[in-house]
Amino acid sequence: MIMPRGQLLLMPVRPAFIVVSLLAALALNMLPLGPMPWMPDALILLLAFWGMHQPLRVGMGVAFALGLCMDVQQSSLLGQHALAYAVLMYGVALAHRRLLWYSAVSQAPQMAGFFALAHAVLVVVGLLAGGGLPSWGVALAPVLEALLWAPASWLLLAPQRRAPDRDEKRHP
């Protein structure tokens, strides 16, 4: 694949970094912060990021398993978050090759649609299960996640931008 002009060639990501970042996002989502529907979902953000940049390592199966963990922790309908995360990963998988050509700032508005779709699935499944209508704050979460997309991308790609070991024979 031809790299876009001005984009650096990244080092391979360490699988342990992916696992640690996803577990940290899961732990952040599980913090007891009270009922705040506008709170951005850190796990949605990281699943979308790794689904775009490492689709062979983080796919719908990982998203579904982490969604089940969220369902159990939040005592919600079993499969509600799992379905929303799987739908998100499916959308990201369809568009990841196209999205990688854009900068993180240009990707953010496009990712807002995927984040809104995932939250819409959460709301619709909750309504079908007999839950009440959420407050208007639930519409703010995808916007906040889209605003966090560029800083999260920069932060998660930082370890891959490390300089390779310097070869003294080639570079005096």
Automatic annotation (TrEMBL):
<dbReference type="Pfam" id="PF04093">
    <property type="entry name" value="MreD"/>
</dbReference>
<keyword id="KW-1003">Cell membrane</keyword>
<keyword id="KW-0133">Cell shape</keyword>
<keyword id="KW-0472">Membrane</keyword>
<feature type="transmembrane region" description="Helical">
    <location>
        <begin position="78"/>
        <end position="100"/>
    </location>
</feature>
<feature type="transmembrane region" description="Helical">
    <location>
        <begin position="112"/>
        <end position="130"/>
    </location>
</feature>
<comment type="similarity">
    <text>Belongs to the MreD family.</text>
</comment>
<dbReference type="InterPro" id="IPR007227">
    <property type="entry name" value="Cell_shape_determining_MreD"/>
</dbReference>
<feature type="transmembrane region" description="Helical">
    <location>
        <begin position="12"/>
        <end position="31"/>
    </location>
</feature>
<dbReference type="GO" id="GO:0005886">
    <property type="term" value="C:plasma membrane"/>
</dbReference>
<protein>
    <submittedName>
        <fullName>Rod shape-determining protein MreD</fullName>
    </submittedName>
</protein>
<dbReference type="GO" id="GO:0008360">
    <property type="term" value="P:regulation of cell shape"/>
</dbReference>
<dbReference type="InterPro" id="IPR026034">
    <property type="entry name" value="MreD_proteobac"/>
</dbReference>
<feature type="transmembrane region" description="Helical">
    <location>
        <begin position="136"/>
        <end position="157"/>
    </location>
</feature>
<keyword id="KW-1133">Transmembrane helix</keyword>
<keyword id="KW-0812">Transmembrane</keyword>
